Amino acid sequence: MILLKMKRMKLRSAFTFIEVIILLALVTVVIVSLIQLFSLSVLQNLRANEMSNAIFLAQQQIDYLRTLTSEELASFPSSLRGESADELLDLNLDGTVDFRRLTKIDVSMDGLGFDVRVLVFPASAVNKNRDELLNQPERYRVRAQIQTLITR
User: Fold this and answer.
1) Secondary structure of the chain in the HEC alphabet?
2) Which of 23, 48, 124, 142 has the largest CB neighbor count within 10 A?
3) pTM confidence score
């Protein structure tokens, strides 16, 4: 009699096959959701890193241009100073282009300064036409765009 009661208690306390399958399905859904969330988080971190690098590169160019005299700004880019208005940048020196930085300088309308525009594009814009990139930066996924006035 005691053995029969123990067997009944074991049967009641054990999981049925359907319960185990349902539990496995729920655990699978949770794990797949967490994996998707993790991969989305990694992609967002990579994009944020790309954006902050691009903003740094644009600001770096603006800071450099602020050190130039009026004559040097008017003659930008100068091969004598090693300048370029269209640069392919390899940040980690691994042999692949990471960014393309375009710099455009115009004399301001009042003639007292220079309108400066710096755009940084991802590597996918390497083979695109410069004027097209300057005219439609959003189309080519511009990562940073700074426009400022430098007066002397």
Assistant:
1) CHHHHHHHHHHHHCCCHHHHHHHHHHHHHHHHHHHHHHHHHHHHHHHHHHHHHHHHHHHHHHHHHHCCCHHHHHCCCCCCCCCCCEEEECCCCCCCCCEEEEEEEEECCCCCEEEEEEEEEEHHHCCCCHHHHHHCHHHHCCCEEEEEEEEC
2) 142
3) 0.77
pLDDT in tens, the chain (152 residues): 665 565 665 556 667 889 899 999 999 999 999 999 999 999 999 999 999 999 999 999 999 999 999 999 999 999 888 999 999 999 999 999 999 999 999 998 888 899 999 999 999 999 999 999 999 999 999 999 999 999 97
The CATH homologous superfamily for domain 2-151 is: GSPII I/J protein-like (3.30.1300.30)
